[in-house]
Design goal:
Layout: E1 7-13, E2 18-22, E3 28-32, H1 36-44, E4 50-55, H2 59-67, E5 74-77, H3 81-101, H4 114-137, E6 138-147, H5 154-161, E7 166-170, H6 178-181, H7 186-197, E8 201-204, H8 207-221, E9 228-231, H9 238-244, H10 248-261, E10 266-273, H11 280-293, E11 301-308, H12 315-335, E12 343-346, H13 351-360, E13 363-366, H14 375-383, E14 389-393, H15 399-402, E15 407-409, H16 414-425, H17 429-443, H18 448-461
Parallel strand pairs: 1-4, 1-6, 4-5, 6-7, 7-8, 8-9, 10-11, 10-13, 11-12, 13-14, 14-15
Antiparallel strand pairs: 2-3
Bound molecules: 6-O-phosphono-beta-D-fructofuranose.
6-O-phosphono-beta-D-fructofuranose binds at residues 14-15, 148, 172-173, 310-311, 372.
Length: 464
Amino acid sequence: MAPSHTAHVLVASNRGPVSYEVQENGELTAKRGGGGLVSGLSAIGPEADALWVCSALSDGDREAVAQGVGEDGVRMLAIPADVHADAYNGVANSVLWFVHHLLYQTPLEPVFDAEFRRQWASYETYNRAFAEALAEEAAEGAAVLVQDYHLCLVPGMLRELRPDLRISHFSHTPWAPVDYFRMLPDDIAAQLLRGMLGADRLGFLTRRWADAFTACATAFAGGLGDTQVGVHGLGADADFLRERSHAADVEERIVGLREEIGAGRKTVVRVDRTELSKNIVRGLLAYRRLLESRPEWLERVVHVAFAYPSRQDLAVYRDYTAEVQRVAEEINEAFGTPGWTPVVLHVKDDFARSLAAYRLADVALVNPIRDGMNLVAKEVPVVSDEGCALVLSREAGAYEELGEDAITVNPYDVEQTAAALHEALTLPPHDRAERAKRLAAAATALPPAQWFLDQLNALKALDA
Ligand code: F6P
């Protein structure tokens, strides 16, 4: 593609706003996604000359690129499937995600061997493809907003190609503490930090993750240099959620869910992508402990757990999903009765059903081992019909904003989580409703469009 040098605002992320599927008749169909970046980009308006650079992820996406099918404002990069798999599955999701979420079982992993080095070379190639595309597309002095751990090397690479650009990088994940980050090979750790520090501005979801990055930069890269660090706590989109959660398909799902739950029972709701970091298994163990230790809840509560597929190319994710299912079945076998299923588990993604569960929630359980923000914690209090109680891990980014009105837990402590579930289920209705109101207000303080605009404005202001 010929360099256009016309875009004034560029976003770069691994997953883009659109994906393609090849139908049986050979035709391509497009599916659009949502999320904070989509709202943000639509808020800046068409006159901003915005471009979203993303990677082709599927065969359908690659076919679309090959046929020249695309959307205005989106450039999809046809990175070869094997290079993408090494960069995305091998490095980003199996190493960087693990480092930032503290997920290794350290007696046996990580092992940084020749295979890792081979995958790392693909991560470099993949980052370079983004940097080159951004360099081609950006107008003089344009603002480039690079997203996430997939693209840590892009700011540094792009800075070399186009010193005129204003470059930011935003981490949607936590950042690792110094002692965990230093597990990475020294040269790789240095390269990652150099890549990030090529940006004019780095954004994080909470002060805690921003401080962790600064500590790593200080320990291994001689400090932040000229790079500014900012905190932007992405909030829930209240208007969208309130309207969407009353649509006909959600009402329909409510009827179905009510049948599964049974009349007069309380609900403990969780909705997650099945990430290892979400701690779904310990959540189930805590619920089992609640039933064991507080028999008054037998027949009177249902745990509605939605664990949607994520990153199923990775065996460890598939195994984790199987473990979630196994433990849920075990609980149902141990405690269930003909009229009561203690755990209602669904693993097929259904957004309308998620919203239906939010509306019915008496208690929301959000207990990640570590999480950049966790938007579910912010969404349920906004949507729940009666105002829910929130059991929240102190290791979720959302804790910084919601901690005061949540019942907080150490995510590893199953006994404490069981006690927190009991406390949440027995909160006096007035207290629960008041807390939920305050939770919803805090959760929606920075809606997605404003979250994006704040970052863009802060980046542009650096020149002034
Ligand atoms: O939730 C953190 C996050 O890094 C998001 O920014 C990003 O959209 C997602 O995880 C990546 O997930 P996936 O591997 O499904 O693209």
